[in-house]
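> example.struct
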């Protein structure tokens, strides 16, 4: 593609240059008896019909066979663009397909409908409250108390200082007081007192504490023939033995 510039020389003469996009001059030509009002540019689109410029100039440029350029209309500004109908048009938000976009800086943009819908499903900022409060289902701060956790009947008493409960007292009422230690020879009687253990206690009140001799250990043999260290001769056996062996012998 090349750019064709037309510059007014003076009077009815113009200076035409065909220049490449890199700035190299392809050719220069002076066209007489044509005047222009400003510098014009010609992109290489020969199939577009020129418009809003002097018809004589258009015909001259279009008929120069060795000029590969298309005449642009006179006029336009840095904010304009050449449209398909070869006219200058202002560049607007409609031009670039942004007709619904507002010219508002990011900081000043309003809340969009979609954002507002999303915000409507959010809670307002929850204000800070006392650390002993909780956020209740009705969206208000409420103090945390024993009622809150369903312990309205619980007393704020340490374990060491808790009183005896009614249920515990009933259980204690069915228990004995601590039984004091007594002499090991005593027993706890039915009247809940310590008593000494005696022969009367065990139903042996007729017995003495004297040494007792078993009947089986008495030997009634008057001859004392058993000659035992464990047998005890009865009184009768002794008398008979003495009478028999010594009285008759006259040793007394």
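> example.seq
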């Amino acid at each position: 593609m090349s750019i064709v510039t037309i510059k007014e020389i003076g009077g009815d003469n113009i200076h035409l240059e065909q220049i490449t996009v890199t700035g190299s001059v392809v050719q220069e030509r002076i066209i007489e008896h044509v005047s222009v009002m400003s510098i014009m540019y010609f992109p290489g689109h020969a199939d577009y019909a020129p418009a809003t410029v002097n018809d004589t100039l258009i015909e001259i440029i279009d008929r120069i066979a060795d000029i590969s350029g298309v005449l642009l209309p006179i006029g336009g500004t840095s904010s304009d663009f050449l449209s398909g109908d070869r006219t200058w048009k202002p560049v607007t938000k409609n031009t670039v397909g942004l007709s619904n976009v507002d010219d508002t800086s990011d900081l000043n943009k309003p809340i969009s409908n979609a954002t507002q819908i999303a915000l409507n499903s959010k809670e307002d900022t929850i204000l800070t409250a006392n650390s002993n409060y909780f956020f209740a289902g009705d969206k208000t701060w409420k103090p945390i108390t024993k009622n809150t956790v369903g312990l309205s009947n619980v007393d704020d008493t340490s374990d060491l200082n808790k009183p005896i409960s009614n249920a515990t007292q009933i259980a204690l009422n069915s228990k004995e007081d601590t039984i004091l230690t007594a002499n090991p020879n005593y027993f706890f009687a039915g009247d809940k007192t310590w008593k000494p253990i005696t022969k009367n206690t065990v139903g042996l009140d007729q017995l003495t504490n004297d040494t007792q001799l078993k009947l089986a250990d008495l030997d009634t043999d008057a001859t004392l023939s058993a000659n035992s260290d464990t047998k005890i001769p009865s009184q009768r056996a002794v008398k008979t033995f003495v009478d028999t062996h010594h009285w008759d012998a006259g040793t007394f």
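> remarks
Residues 6 and 16 are 5 Å apart (CA to CA).
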